[in-house]
Amino acid sequence: MNPSESPLFEPVVDRESNITSYVLRERVAPLQQSFYYINDPSDNSGRYLWFYCAFPPSGSGAYGRTLGLIDFKNQQLHHFPETQFRAASPFVDSATAEVYWTSGRDIWRRSPHPDATVQHVNGLASSQTDGSKVEGYEVGGREVGRLATHLTRSADGKNFAIDASVGLQFWFGAMPIDGGDFELWHRLDRQYNHAQFNPCDSDLMLFAQEFHTDPITGGRFSVEDRLWTIRRGESPRPVLPQPTAVTHEWWDPDGKHVCCIRGRDQTNPGVWRINLATAHIENIWPGEHWHAHQDRTGQYMVSDRVLGQPFYRGCASQVQFFNRRTGREVHIAQNPAHRSYEGQQYHIDPHPRFVFNDTYVCYTTTIKNQVDLALVSCDELIAATS
Description:
Blueprint: E1 9-13, E2 20-24, E3 31-33, E4 48-54, E5 63-71, E6 76-86, E7 91-92, E8 99-103, E9 106-110, E10 119-123, E11 144-146, E12 159-166, E13 169-176, E14 183-188, E15 192-197, E16 204-209, E17 212-213, E18 220-221, E19 227-231, E20 237-238, E21 247-251, E22 257-262, E23 270-275, E24 281-286, E25 291-294, E26 300-306, E27 317-323, E28 328-335, H1 341-345, E29 353-355, E30 360-365, E31 372-377, H2 378-384
Antiparallel strand pairs: 1-2, 2-31, 3-4, 4-5, 5-6, 7-8, 8-9, 9-10, 11-12, 12-13, 13-14, 15-16, 16-19, 17-18, 19-20, 21-22, 22-23, 23-24, 25-26, 26-27, 27-28, 29-30, 30-31
């Protein structure tokens, strides 16, 4: 794939950094945006890139968006309205380019081929009689508000991490891809989410304490200790010895460290890398960040940051690249504020991440005063920071 040679993309050069972003010019939906940064939307072959679609005022960032697909081989865009998904659940199998997503209490899958049919993968059973073996934790008539914040697959490829919202409870566990029974690891009575399987250990998950609103009283409970892990058969454990406020966590590719964002209004702000065994904190990219992601070598990083105050969904933002080998940084683009229904409703943060085996960075942009997907070459970014 090469967006610079594709008629589907339009080059846009940043006036200050001279970095070229390739913005998706063809449209299958009024709003087209990149995946949430945890999951890779691309395949290993370099042919396919999945993205989120929305049709305002339909749906929201919580539920109602659908999936689009870029086929670089045939230079085509496709939209699949049957892929309406919950939260940021879509997950792409990098070997097959198949996409998985959640809807209600179920996981679904489809091939990138336009004539393919949707397949049911697995789901939470409503009662013991239809396959659930989670005694005392049947869904019954309770609403499943979320099955998974974002689907991540275990290192052995057998399960997806589940952080389901079921009635007034939050269930954590493993959902077999082969259709087997859901395995409950733990139940919590306040909001925890963002469960992610460890990339190397199939028995370990990272998850996050989240702001919790009591559904009966409306009382709001703050985040006191963000980072937690849970091992199969054990109780949850905090990552740090003292309650600590951080945000937007992910696994380091080595599986031995957790990365997260320490906010600009706190001490030692930046991208933290925390040793899971010792709780030692290393600030690997000091400064102000919103979300961040690293390539598989850990030498290159991307992030976004909020420009100005106050913060709101759709506020002005900046995307930047950091070369840890040289200590140099270059900004990729500045996104104009998008104070609109789209900005408020669809979680249009840039969410930059590495794609196509770390050869490109993908992010959501408002450079053209609409919500678009953009790609930028890592070779250009590395050259600019060498």
